[in-house]
Specification:
This protein is mostly beta strands and about 90 residues long. It has strands at about 1-10, 20-25, 30, 35-40, 45-50, 55-60, 65-70, 75-80. Helix content is about 0%, strand content about 45%. It has one domain (about 1-80): Beta Barrel (OB fold (Dihydrolipoamide Acetyltransferase, E2P)), CATH 2.40.50. Strands 1-8-6-3 form a four-stranded antiparallel sheet, with no helix packed on it. The protein has a four-stranded antiparallel sheet with strand order 5-4-2-7, with no helix packed on it.
Length: about 90
């Protein structure tokens, strides 16, 4: 059973309205956990925002040149529920 995971802008300090300078994925792309989804640029640095789950990108909610703040929705990832594992033999 798959679940839809919301990926949001993590804590970026006191910055608000940070520019999205790159969108690294598109809907339909398969991503690994911690794979870069977007790159943000503040006055002082650039920051990659990673996926919080492995799965398939269903929607991208930001675009290059757009602006985001902490907590804003970046993407929806359809993550497969992991199969239960038995004890090691």
């Amino acid at each position: 059973m798959a679940s839809l995971i919301e990926v949001r802008v993590p804590d970026i300090g006191d910055f608000k309205d940070v520019e999205v300078i790159e969108v690294a994925v598109q809907p339909g792309d398969t991503v690994a956990h911690e794979a870069t989804l977007v790159t943000l640029e503040t006055e002082k640095a650039t920051m990659d925002v990673p996926s919080t789950a492995a799965g398939v990108v269903r929607e991208i909610k930001v675009s290059r040149g757009g602006r985001v703040s902490q907590g804003d929705l970046i993407a929806l990832i359809e993550a497969e529920a992991s199969a239960p594992t038995g004890p090691a033999a």
